[in-house]
Amino acid sequence: MDLDPSTDLSFTRTLAVPRQLIWECWTEPKHIPHFFIPAPHKVTAVDIDLRVGGRFNTTFDVDGHVMDNHGVYLEVVPDEKLVFTDTYTEGWKPAPEPFMTAILLLSDAPGGGTTYTAIARHRNEGSRKSHEDMGFFDGWGTVVTQLEAYAKGLMP
């Protein structure tokens, strides 16, 4: 995938968990609260309709402030690729202030586990810079660390 460093942020990690389990964690509502926002913040609600055009809605509690996040899936390739955005909400209704499109790529890692790539695409350099300044690498890095730890606990 071609990345534009002026508008895209990304990182890749190897997770010691099978990619099917990572996929399950990202696509089943019961799992999302266990990793999707850096602790001690919380995910208090998840509403998923896993199909292109289907909703990916979450609610966060950040220091007592409720934050509703509404988005849609743009691409769903089981066990390989998940693309969602807040540019639209369900029914292809444009969001008033879209922020980004997230792309998650999963593949089998050499030697086992999952190669996990997270990409955040933004409308312009200013949005990318804002996201980076908000702590993209630390925040999304913490989320993937939490995801791996949670998923390991689900392994037989």
TrEMBL record:
The organism's lineage? Bacteria, Pseudomonadati, Pseudomonadota, Alphaproteobacteria, Rhodobacterales
Q: What is this protein called?
A: SRPBCC family protein
Q: Which family does it belong to?
A: Belongs to the AHA1 family.
What are the record keywords, sorted? Plasmid
Positions of the Activator of Hsp90 ATPase homologue 1/2-like C-terminal domain: 17-151
Spell out the Pfam families in the cross-references.
AHSA1 (PF08327)
From what organism does this protein derive?
A: Gemmobacter fulvus
